[in-house]
Amino acid sequence: MSASSNQRSEDQFLCSICLDAFTDPVTTSCGHNFCKHCISQHWDVSLLCKCPLCNEIFHTRPQLQVNTFIKELVSKFRHEAEQKPSSSSSEPQAAKPGEVPCDVCTGTRLKALKSCLGCLTSYCQAHLEPHLTLSGLKRHQLVEPVEKLEDRMCKKHDKPLELFCRTDQTCVCMLCSVLDHKTHEFVPLKEGYEGKKAELEKTEAEIQQKIQERRLKIQELEESVRISRAAADREKAEGVQVFTALMEAVERCLKGFVEEIEAKQKDSENEAEDFIEDLELEICELMKRSSKVEQLSLSEDHLHLLQGSSSLQDAPPTRDWTEVRVNPPSYDGTGVRAVAQLERTIRKTMKKLFEAELQRVQQYAVDVTLDPETAHPKLLLSDGGKQVRHGGVWRDLPNNPERFSLYTIVLGQQRFSSGRSYFEVQVKGKSNWDLGVTIESISRKDRIKPRPQDGFWVLWLRDGNNYTALAGPSVRLHLQSVPEKVGVLVDYEGGLVSFYDVHAAALIFSFTGCCFTEKLVPFFDPCNNADGKNSAPLIICPVQKSV
Hints:
The chain has 547 residues and is α+β, with helices and mostly antiparallel strands. Helix content is 37%, strand content 17%.
């Protein structure tokens, strides 16, 4: 066989990563072979699992098994290479940095081909020959060249480490097994190696699983960021559109305001100019008459003066300008009317904005039902659990831990612990009510303070017109209209609880910057009947999207 063909044959058994003969060869699904350690280490430091030769990407890391057929071919090739010196090199090769040198060579130390565990010596091709030919040395165990062979000897008994102590998880010699570890469990090194290797492979598989889970989590977070960015872009675009419309409305109102003032001023100027023109015409006629009078007065001809003066008897008609005035225009109320027009435009724009917002939050509608186990004994619930009213009479109900005893409160059955949730409640016809959400662990038997720091995010109505957000301190609300149906939005991660006037499509109040640490539940209190003035129930309504 030629040297070139031998070289090609040798290349077939070389790993393309370490450029050495295969150790535990594995085959990828694309048909390429690598040392198991090499390809595993390569994938450990790569972001993607792909073939180093053809770059095929594996979306999940392959579980590789040793290709026994190639492993046997490599083993046979190595054995043949050990038996026959390479014809491609005329002289033995000196050990390079990082290679194990022969322990027997003097002078130039050649590269070791094998290490003997019996002799604790590494041999080059020439010095290995006795181990391959002499029957006494053939029984020695030859391994791939390794450094520090003394580490394979028991430091206490100076014997080869041949056993693995499963009890102490350490390698021992034969004397250790009968002296220091006599009650322990032992297996041959090969069996211990295979067991430990299986454990490492299992650990590696678990690590790869964790890596894969974290890569999926990265994808999930990146997708979350993408969705968040898209939502932010949409919100900015809508905001820019709204504020652009408002700025255009301000400019129109300003332009109309200026034009109205300028028109009034122009009318005043035109009137004054007309008067001035008439006055100038009269002055011109009077000056002509004055000239004639002066000429006649200078005449010494009696007849001429008398005859000329008779022609001056008819004076040209003139206007009495005594009471003529040009009153400055009144600008009173011009600015107020302009601002009022702007306010109407802004209110109209805000209504459209809130309608759009309400439509967005209504998509998070949940089906809320009242929990009868929490209802105060004076409360009456409908059969479907959608209405609650004050009954006025204490009913004989079990005093279970969930039931409120001091306050006429009932909670919803639903729990909010993530995402966004929205529900609507009809409050029409009521003069007093409490509505909102509270923490699940709210006290049912003791006095409570309905405020955020104590786990309450509640709105209430008192005396028919006193709307208050119990924000600790409370905030008195001044509403443009009387709500008949109130929408409640909970954004758990966003730390937000908002209340809406559904019919008016207006935001009533928002609790912002909340930090929720436990589950939230809907909160209802229809309050006392007030001699029939507050007998209407609170009604949980199905959500119908606003038009």
